[in-house]
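TL;DR need structure tokens for one chain.
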Amino acid sequence: MEFHCNVCGSTVISKEIRRGDGHAVLFCADCGMGAVSDPPETTDGFYEDGYYGTAAAGAPGYSDYAFTAEHGLLWCRLIIESLAPPGGRILDVGCADGFLLDRLSGQYHRFGIEVNAAAAEKAAARGITMIANDVSDPRLTSGTWGKFDVITSIATFEHVLDFRDAIRICLDVLAPAGLLLFEVPLISDHRDNSDWFQSSYEHIYYPTVSGLSRLFGAFPGIYHMGFETDIKGYGSTYIGVATRDAAIFARAQRLLQAMAQPGLEGLDVTEIQLNIAYHVVHCFRPTPERVLALPKLLDVAATPNLLKRLTQLWYGDSALAVERDVYFKASQFYEQDARNWQDAYNALAAAKSDGSVSA
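>> reply
TL;DR here they are.
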């Protein structure tokens, strides 16, 4: 089987993992990046109108995109609003119906790229300037070279036919102090990856930490950092940033560190909002400290879908508490029952020893 790594060019395969649909995912022995063994010539067929919002179980897409976007993109919105200059130019690669761009609070110039025609029309109706339907479209680089202050790509790069070139193009069209902010599925070294091999069969690439580090290291003058997420009940993803500007990188690095920080100590209000948006809303991992701080996030992000997400969290924790309470009461019963049997045995043994009960 011919193999040529899109990231480093190696032709050596380290391992092969079979997806649930029978297709093989091949991993590079040099950089670790994964890719499907037989990518299609075009991916257009994956993104029919039902991809956003009406996808059937097992089919590519989202059953409720608006709800998923509400809790999956809030952290991203808060980072953009913290880093983008007033009146900045924001490009969302794979913008769907423009949900993220539309949610931004501030006077920004909003641009989108989206392959699904129906979703792109909805984005345009929201006032978003649609540039192209694919990141490799020449219309992106003609006239936009070095123009964008922030480029976002959330759950998109894994879908493209040329991962390396998609990253290169995004870096090329960034302004000198521009920032690329992205999230991709991650094949983890220590968490369960079955979500990525048993669903989402439209994915072409299967990124790893080593593969992403190798890729961004190949672009001169680029500062890059990222981290693996720990989303409760779901596979890992990788959230990362890349920029040519040292000052912007330092600010972005601080925000990502604050976002991923285990507790809220030492964080300002903006960083607390970001931390809660990531840990509670995105990763489904609340703590008593974060629950008490929720009003700080709701001050800037209260929507029906966000409250629906928090209700799910509350319900899950409440159900678990009830289950644990029932278990605790049951365990108390059985422990007492065992003690009763033990006491009865000891009493019988004592009675036999003093002759009051015959053997």
